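pipeline stage [seq->struct] | target=CsbA family protein | organism=Niallia oryzisoli | residues=77
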Amino acid sequence: MFLKFLSALFLPGLLVVWFTRVTYNRVLALVLTVALIAASVYKGYTHTMWLIVVDAFSLTVGFWYGARIKQRMKHSS
């Protein structure tokens, strides 16, 4: 159970950041990551409300950090 919480804390945020770098669009990155989380909830891997809350927190942090990365990429070129 600890591993699930640890994964929920880091992986969604990292996915948003990675998808932001790949697609150059942080909203699309957020939608893709939410779709992956929705699939995991549907399959039964995310079964407690606390895991969903931790996922949402990680998504929020990843979305914020993706905006910073996009802004840095915009200023550097």
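stage status: PASS
auto-comment: The chain has a mean pLDDT of 88. The chain has one domain: 12-76.
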